[in-house]
Amino acid sequence: MSGPHAGFYVHYHGMGHKHRTEAILKHLSIPATVVTSRMDSLNWNGPTLSNVVGIECDNEELNQEGLKRAADVPCLHFAPLWSDNISNRVAKYTAWLADAKPDVMVVDVSAEISQLTRLSSIPQIVMRQHGDRSDPGHLHTYAAAHSLLAPFPQSMEDEITPDWVREKTVYLHGFCRSKSGHSEIPSPSLTGQPTIVFMFGRGGTGEVHERLRATAESLPAYRILVIGKERDESHHRDPANLHYLGWVNNAPDYTASADVVVTAAGHNSVMELGYARAKFIAIAQPRPFNEQIRKVNVLHREQLAIGLEQWPDDANWPELIHRARRLDPSKWDDVFKEDGAKQAADHIHRVALWSSEKRQRSARISL
């Protein structure tokens, strides 16, 4: 491929990595290729996106005995033995690198892909995430990168991040899928009863339903709307103020018009609510590397949200809601001062141009 060319490795867990990549691609002016697993057959959007390459997934068709050796290598997060799927994945990815010769790879996210990329002699930009990333796998990944992209501004940096990682980081202003934070439905508080929206992903457990029933009982003055989960039909005594809406396609309408939103502390949910200038409570869910625990601490420190490391006791809900309603949503203005997706695209473009020039103009020597 002539001219600068950027590649994107997009992790297959959830849709957040795909949405983030597409937001950046929207602003990218050089040809781009996406490499991914499981999601290569989906529709991908980007004005300069030329190809989507599918490679085998590294957690399918694993050898049961080999899986016991997955953590043998400290600088890798996942290296099981005797998996043909992983052998084929590595071979296909490195063969594509050798053939396409991208000027830069954007890795979002994988320690193994990052180090394969550097071993294949291709510069890379690694996407950072919140969490305690002090393990050897992450530190080697960051060291192998030309630069790091943080999908959050420097004000949302974690105090545990080493100085050398901060120095390699390009901090971005916020970006998300939403284009408007304004709801088309009337504010519930204007209808006479304040509303709290609990926002969950798909699925649910009996434990969550029990918690929601107890929460609704502790907040009788509020209408409780639950999106993302269906009612537990085995239980017929839900409080009158508790309403399950199931999976909805217009979640921003509900969250933007709520008095308070309660959500897990996933990056996309947090940024969507921040963009909408919602007053919200973020509750950490168990994630590798304490990702959401570290994030709620940052949110709480910056007074962007009420951040909780775990589900609160029932008796604490009234005070938590009171505190959430006193939050100042204008604190998100600095987070979204500029378009972080465009900032990311501009950086990727600059690194691709630098890499292309060095590749073409540097002399060849043998040692």
From TrEMBL:
<dbReference type="GO" id="GO:0016740">
    <property type="term" value="F:transferase activity"/>
</dbReference>
<feature type="domain" description="Glycosyl transferase family 28 C-terminal">
    <location>
        <begin position="224"/>
        <end position="310"/>
    </location>
</feature>
<dbReference type="InterPro" id="IPR007235">
    <property type="entry name" value="Glyco_trans_28_C"/>
</dbReference>
<keyword id="KW-0808">Transferase</keyword>
<protein>
    <submittedName>
        <fullName>Glycosyl transferase family 28 protein</fullName>
    </submittedName>
</protein>
<dbReference type="Pfam" id="PF04101">
    <property type="entry name" value="Glyco_tran_28_C"/>
</dbReference>
